Write the structure tokens for this entry.
Amino acid sequence: MTVDWTAVDGATSYKVYRGSEKVFYKEVTEPKCTLTGIAPDTKLTVNVSAVNSAGESPMTEIETRTKPVEA
């Protein structure tokens, strides 16, 4: 599953956090991230922060759902 968001001017990377516990998942340089290991038809909360030389921005929350299994 790929989650994408609007790019932030001046950001050099983005930190992606998974779940309501906001567990760090990975740092990416493009405004998108592919998440793996998620069961079909699962609601998922992803939080993203922009990073630059000044530090890390507050997180933005994205709620999404994986597709159900097709019969």
